[in-house]
Amino acid sequence: MRSMEVKVVEEQDRARFNAHIARLGGDLLQSYEWGEIKGQTGWEPLRLIAFDKDQVKAALSILQRQLPLLNSPIFYAPRGPVMDFTDTAALDCLLGRVEELARARGAVMLKIDPPVPKSRQDVAKILSSRGFHHVEKGLAFDGVQPRFVMQLDISPSEGAILTEMKGKTRYNIRYGERKGVRIKENCTRRDLAIFYQILLETAQRDNFTVRSYPYFELLWDHLAPKGMGKLFMASYQGEYLAGAFLFRLGPIAWYVYGASSNQQRNLMPNYLLQWAMIKWAKRNGCRIYDFRGVSGDLDPDSPLYGLYRFKTGFSASLVEYLGEYDLPYRPVVYGLWRRSEPWHKSILKWKDSLGSFLKRGE
Fold first, then answer.
1. DSSP annotation of 296
2. CATH code for the domain defined by 148-320
3. How many CB atoms are closer than 10 A to CB 20?
4. Which of 65, 166, 219, 225 is the most buried (most CB within 10 A)?
């Protein structure tokens, strides 16, 4: 008879919580620090650990947020839980505690999107048997987190990694070096403001939206001092041309935000920037470099194909995850949520934008 227990994680459990996530190759979005960040953007973090005697079996960071139209909260565990899903005793114990919290708080559902490859249909069956519903999403970036990601094994030597890249990618890396592009790794908070201006320039050029600057300040303040977040900048003759923000936890580094100026684009600074981040991640003990999301539509005529082409040039492999799963606690209200989801997302996005506007004091 196993003596499984689940406890709510407090500040004094931070190190143990993060250590388990890192040990199992979990995502930084499940870290204690990520909950702190989201706790300042309209979410309430709830963290749980399941353990048998003194051995941690599962960790789960939940974000709770109130739905404006339904006046009820939802639970969302980005890239969680972190565990061996075939340990069904630990899973059941964990889910039982989550349900207790959900009932007490009136939560509509628990949404999860664990970084489990689609090939693991055994995990899909386990989730379905526990009442989870798979949420169908499109091939692009329709989910909360990307379902299709590009990952590079960086355990081989630097020379071997470089050799496996496509010839054009290697050429672009060396071209930037020859032309005098420089990479700054010891970036400061002052550089963050410059990066953000380049990000706005990128967003206008490529027609996408970005979060407010205070959000990036939160990322820096909570992650950079602990080595969990790092900014890299590429410059030419003293002028910044590109930048990228990297997450790191345990054996994995994630390329999360990238920006490039409209100036000197012929110097291909993004290629040298990626190579610098890959080498840094390897030097700091990472085994996987995650380029994050791409579209699952690999038609060369797709407008998003260029993103895949750029990342695959580094010899990264496409990984498709299982996707999103919802565990409803209040089926009727959950049905209303599914029908009104676009409205809720629009309202929450507007509230986030308004909050950022007020924080800036404009």
1. S
2. 3.40.630.30
3. 22
4. 219
Provide the angle, in degrees to the nearest 10, between the axes of the packed helices 213-223 and 331-359: 100
Q: What is the pLDDT of residue 357?
A: 37
Question: Tell me, what's the pLDDT at 360?
Answer: 40
Domains of the chain, by residue range, sit at 4-145+322-359, 148-320
Burial of 175 (0-12, 13-18, 19+ CB in 10 A): middle
Alpha helices in the chain (DSSP H): 14-23, 32-38, 88-105, 121-129, 158-164, 167-179, 189-206, 213-223, 269-283, 305-312, 331-359
CB neighbourhood size of 120 (10 A): 15
Measure the CA–CA gap between 16 and 58, rounded to whole angstroms: 11
For residues 52 and 13, what is the distance between their CA atoms, to the nearest angstrom?
A: 16
How does 221-239 read in b/e, with b if 16+ C-beta sit within 10 Å?
bbbbeeebbbbbbbbbeee
Q: Rounded distance, CA 150 to CA 313, Å?
A: 11
Among the listed residues 192, 237, 209, 253, the one whose alpha carbon sits nearest the alpha carbon of residue 352: 209
Q: What's the whole-model pTM score?
A: 0.92
β-bridge mates for residue 66, sequence order: 73
Torsion of CA 132, 138, 141, 144, to 10 degrees: -20
For β-strands 109-112 and 72-77, DSSP reports them as parallel
Fold classification of 4-145+322-359 (topology level)? Aminopeptidase (3.40.630)
> For 269-304, how does the pLDDT look when each residue is reduced to its tens digit (9 = 90+)?
999 999 999 999 999 999 999 999 999 888 898 888
Radius of gyration of the chain (CA): 21
Q: Which residues does the chain have with pLDDT short of 70?
A: 1-2, 342-362
**Separation of alpha carbons 80 and 288, rounded Å:** 18
Tokens 């899909």 belong to 124
Question: DSSP secondary-structure letter at 31?
Answer: S
Answer yes or no: same fold for 4-145+322-359 and 148-320.
Answer: yes
Side-chain half-sphere exposure of 298, counting CA atoms within 13 A? 12
